[in-house]
Amino acid sequence: MEVSAHMVKDLREKTGAGMMDCKKALAETGGDFQKALDYLRQKGLATAAKRAGRVASEGRVGSYIHAGGKIGVMVEVNCETDFVAKTDDFQAFAKDVAMHIAASNPSYIRREEVTAEVLEREKEIYRAQARDAKKPEKVIDKIVEGKLEKFYGESCLLEQPFVKDPDLTIQELLNGLIGKLGEKIEIRRFTRYQVGEGMAKS
Asked: Is the dihedral of CA 83, 190, 22, 5 positive or negative?
């Protein structure tokens, strides 16, 4: 069954989930509205969207030291109550995210943080690569768009495949936790240290 824009709109209004998530849910369930609703609930997306407007001022700082003390990460994960912050699930998530950052070295948390200047520079590089490869002008914009999505997937923490389960992105892992614990949870900031990073080696 073909997924129409109207079906996606109805599902968005019902759940508050993102357009692409609703489209994927309908595609995965053959256009069955109720099954798509269940699919989103299982993924935690409906819950995550509904709780997005709440204030998450509690939380924990997760940390991870890797590679014999050569890489260290601290990440702040926020939630609504100290009760949730003390749960094993929440603390395990904070530690997993810190470990993931150590391994995957993201530059941003979400794509909205990428500056217009960085985006324009990336686009120019991709356009030049496409022209060097003698790609027709009419398909260059589509190629650039595809490469930008790949850039987001590699550079933005929430869009990276989780190192312990590459079938899940960090966003999907987070949505699952929100669905399980029933609170708004967000990754606020992180710092990653690597011994010798940025120093010129003699």
From this structure: positive
Q: What is the CATH number of the domain that holds 78?
A: 3.30.479.20
Q: Is 192 helix (H, G, I), strand (E, B) or coil?
A: strand
Q: Can you read off the two tokens belonging to residue 130? A: 């496409």
Q: What is the CATH number of the domain that holds 29?
A: 1.10.8.10
Question: pTM to 2 decimals?
Answer: 0.70
Phi, psi of 193 (to 5 degrees): -110, 140
For the segment 66-115, what is each residue's pLDDT rounded down to a tens digit?
878 999 999 999 999 999 999 999 999 999 999 999 999 999 999 999 99
| Together in a domain, 62 and 106 | yes
Q: How far apart are CA 37 and CA 19, in angstroms?
A: 13
Residue 118 structure tokens: 């960085």
